[in-house]
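TICKET #2291
ISSUE: user wants both folds in one file
ATTACHMENT 1:
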Amino acid sequence: MDLSTICERYDERLSPGEYADVDASANGLQVGPGEASVDTVAFAVDAAGATIETAADRGADLLVVHHGLSWGGIDRVTGLSYDRIAPLIERDLALYAMHLPLDGHDELGNAAGVADVLGLEAREPFGEVGPVTIGQRGRASEPMSAAELASTLEANLDTGGEGVQYFDYGPESIEDVAIVTGGGADWLEEAIDAGVDAFVSGEGKQKVYHQARDAGVNVFLGGHYATETFGVRALQELAEEWDVETTYVDHPTGL
């Protein structure tokens, strides 16, 4: 399949233009020629030395990631930027990145994937960033305790053995859950204002402990990497539907 066709199909499904004013990521094709043939696509959460080299070693023509290399533009290709971009060019490996649009998509997004794991129903957008959202809110089909919710996350997240941290300061019976994956701790206040029983995110900040305790809400931190594997996995499934050979580069950070 042609590189431009794959990129156009992803762009059409994810609508990155809607996030252009609020997302620092240069969503879309970040490194690569205008036209190229793609036989194998690799998928990873992060564009980094380890994932780029692994994708190239597996013979991939395109690497699709959530966290790319261009954040607000690249002024100079030196140092770490050079070390990451050089092997992409030297080994004819194109790079496509999709950040916030892949967090908030109602079907393919990271929050949607976590909501699937928790079996949430009656879902609606959550986590406002200007005119768009990057998370989801829903109700559990059956009430859960904090320990049960944490256990479900641990069983389904690629945490790298780090487990799920949680603060059980909210209701003992959890039904209403809000999710913003990755570094979504700043949306805890929105979750509190919404009156949910629990808030699920990736990594926390010091203030999260006190906010959760003072507001009486359960908070679950599954890890930035672990909560953001779902989006690229969903994009991998799409590529397979297009009869493209795929490979997934799993590189958990434990964070």
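ATTACHMENT 2:
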Amino acid sequence: MAEGLSAVNGLNRCPHCGGSDIETDTAAGKLKCKYCKTLFDAASDNAAGGMESLKGDTVNAGASDIVPGEDIVLTFKCPACGAEVVLNTEEATSASCHWCRHVFSANEKMPNGAVPDLVLPFKITKDEAIAKIRESVDLNSPTLLTEFRQNFKPEEVRGVYFPYMIIDLNTHWNSYGEAQKSIGEAKYPPYEYEEYNISREFDFLVDDLTVESSASRLNQDTYVNSNNIINAILPFDTENAVAWNANYLRGFASERRSVDTNSLKEVVALQTGDMARRKIKTDSPQYDRGIHWEKEHLKVNGSKWKAAYLPVWLYSYKPEKESRIYYIAINARTGETVGCVPTHGSSGQNIEARHHHEDETRFEVQNLKASDTFSKKGKSYKKEIDFRNDTRVIGSLSHGREEMLGVEKGRFRNGANYTRARSSSSSSNIGIVIFIIIFIAMMILAAILPGGSGGGGSSSSSSYDSGSSWDSGSSWDSGGSSDWGGSDSSSGFDYDW
């Protein structure tokens, strides 16, 4: 049969006989027809490009909202022979016709989001995965937990398809602030510098930003769990993902998606902001003392969401006396291996393990408008500009999110204005100093003047009034910091979706 039969109606079919009963041959890195044994390449269904035309939110069928309580038993009519087959979606996401062996899936007809739009087939074989696990564990290490060493069985590794969202974005970035570059090569302070008022505005197009879509893995507190290693083995070559076909799941486990697009918009916006910020820093090496952004704004003009299954080899271990589960994960496309194992005197968590989305996601910059205006010369005993924030990564799921979870929670617009105001810090410190000076002065007066004790107490009470410098509502309030315009000099990151 013609080569064009390899992809019909969104499914990969055998180019030799046209059969749909196929499986993944990881050793060959190809698909294999179970009828005629032909090996062939899967046809990609995730071509790059086209982000500039995105308007509004486009959500593919597999990425649509999960609707609880709908019928879980679905009936399908076989397109090959006409037989009716019943599929219980609580037990399986795929089935085959018991007459003609045609394999079909619930695909977009499933109302509960269990079936994705795309799947990336396994490429690393099980034997290769076992070898990588052995290489990653030093059994001779004296710090390794004896119990783990005795029960180490890498051959128990399992192939699992994990759910992810793949997002294309059409956004617009706008930011302004101050930047400094060194004058000369002084080795000791004071350091001379030139300061510039700078602004950057551009269209920022993101291709295949990949985010976990399982609620259990979105919580990547490494002091609670160790599953951040799943995030750390990204990126995958998602441009080679193919249209969903139930055949790819044969011999592998899979996990259902448990979060919807709205629950991920904040994470997606923050990571996109990280990427834009990193791009500016990379393109402005002259500002070696750094940049303090007064304002950063991301406008999401359009997005496209696709649910995908991505392949992982996973080895897990649970000590008898611990609730924590330890993992070693392997990207089944690239071979990237990250793990955490139990050791003496340590929980073994791999705190720094994370996907560097700010460096490893594809993007394109268009219509760049840049302005750099000289402001002044100066000297400083510090090597960096005050309140430098051009290097921060606030969309990191593994260790950058404490900014949101800390004292600023609830004080930012749209959940994204995480950077404490520059003026706030200085005014707060000044307030503390003034209070201490007034308090000491009143104590001295109370000790010297007759009857001064009462007056001192009154003044001290007045200077401690929370309506002024001690009021966290004034110095941390996001109402001004997320508002464009005016003379407000506070910094932050806000976005519009």
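RESOLUTION: both attachments delivered.
EXTRA DETAIL ON ATTACHMENT 2: The chain has eleven helices and 20 strands.
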